[in-house]
Each structure stands twice: as structure tokens, then as C-alpha cells.
Specification:
There is one protein chain. This protein is an alpha+beta fold and about 220 residues long. About 45% of the residues lie in helices and about 10% in strands. It is built from eleven helices and four strands. Strands 1-2-4-3 form a four-stranded antiparallel beta sheet, sandwiched between helices.
Length: about 220
């Protein structure tokens, strides 16, 4: 199939080794940031924060979060051009949701007289909130929608990436406390350009089950 979307998905892959000398351009980073902002989420909750690890100082901090576990991902901390920390709000309150609804109205997307009706959508979050106010399982699921969006964005830009659930959320929370502001990072995404001749799975054909094994038309 020659469709450009299918071409994007056939060429993207999980990079195993990055060329530390290659940096993503400022122009492409602006596209990535805006794509993050525009990611979809249930009830437009946007219960997230995206921390972009760019400076050498921040890369060192991220590198140090692998002190106790997942050292197989540690080389990406410094070799990748950037890393994005995808963090979710573990206690997404109705008051926080109201700020999103305020933005819906101020942007012109939502008529002011529909404000109260849209606030009722918070019931989706309430249904996933326990007696202690924790709804992190639900908000974490929203983060993965953004992750999928960015994977395709990067493929279109010709930028390599490595999704990493192999991260230490506790240490990231400590070393990036100021940036995270109470959000929790359970998944990160290294981005940059693979190292020629060293990234063994670059350019190999996709290994996926046949379409009729995974797609059923009812």
C-alpha cells in the first residue's frame, strides 16, 4: 500500500542506538511540542505534563534515574537528542477539569451556555476515582494516546524514537520534581537519530500478524 500514512508506519521502528552527535532541529522540536499539546484525551481532560529533557544538565539527571533499575535504557539518556517524559496527574480533580472547560469557552470551541453541561463530563473521571482521590490509572491511559500521536508525528518528520516503560518513576519524580509538579512519569520517549551501522533493526521489514488476525469487520 502506497498511502503516506502506511509508509510512515512501515518506516518507524524502535531505535536501539542513537548518534549522540545529531540533534533535532529547533523547527522540528516546535512541531513536536505543538503535536503534544494537540493530543486527544478523554473529555479533553489533558491530565498530563510533558517534560522535554534537552540540556546536558537535565540529561545527566535523567541518566542518574537508572541507578537502581532498567540500565539497558540508560545509554539513551545522553545519546538521544532529546527525551520526553510523559507524566500523568494521579489526582485529577473537578477543579482542574474546570480549567480545561474554561479554555473550551475562551477559545470559542464551546458556547458559554453549554459550560455546565460540559462540566458534567467529569463523571467519566469520577467513575475512575477512588475514595482517596486517586484516578492515576485513568489519567495514565490518556498519556498513551499522546504517546501514539507523537510516534506517528516523529515518523512523519523522519525522527527515530524509543518508547521506554523501563524507567524508574520514583527517581524521576525526585530528580524532576520541579518540572513534574506532582505528575508521575511511568513512560518516557527517547528521540533523535539512529547510529548508522550500529542500530541492528533499522530498515528491517515489519514483523506483524496478518491483518485478518487482528482486524475483524462486524
Amino acid at each position: 500500500m502506497s498511502h503516506p500514512i502506511i509508509k510512515d508506519l512501515n518506516t518507524r521502528y524502535t531505535a536501539k542506538k542513537y548518534d549522540a552527535s545529531k540533534r533535532i532541529s529547533a523547527e522540528d522540536m516546535e512541531v513536536i511540542k505543538e503535536a503534544l499539546r494537540l493530543s486527544a484525551s478523554s473529555i479533553n481532560s489533558q491530565p498530563w505534563k510533558f517534560v522535554i529533557v534537552e540540556s546536558d544538565e537535565a540529561k545527566q539527571r535523567f541518566h542518574d534515574t537508572f541507578e537502581n533499575m532498567h540500565q539497558f535504557n540508560q545509554p539513551h539518556a545522553k545519546a538521544a537528542s532529546h527525551t520526553i517524559l510523559f507524566a500523568h496527574d494521579p489526582e485529577f480533580t473537578k477543579e482542574k477539569f474546570a480549567k480545561r472547560v474554561d479554555a473550551e469557552v475562551s477559545s470559542g470551541h464551546l458556547p458559554a451556555d453549554m459550560y455546565d453541561m460540559f462540566m458534567g463530563a467529569y463523571a467519566f473521571a469520577e467513575a475512575n476515582t477512588d475514595e482517596n482521590g486517586f484516578n492515576g490509572t485513568w489519567t495514565k491511559a490518556q498519556v498513551y494516546i499522546a504517546l501514539g500521536n507523537i510516534l506517528h508525528t516523529l515518523a512523519r518528520l523522519g525522527i527515530d524514537s524509543t518508547p521506554m516503560e523501563g524507567v524508574d518513576a520514583k527517581l524521576i519524580g525526585e530528580k524532576f520534581a520541579d518540572e513534574l509538579e506532582g505528575h508521575v512519569c511511568d513512560v518516557a520517549l527517547a528521540i533523535g537519530y539512529h547510529e548508522e551501522g550500529e542500530d541492528y533493526n533499522h530498515g528491517l521489514p515489519k514483523a506483524r500478524l496478518a491483518q485478518d488476525h487482528v482486524v475483524t469487520v462486524a
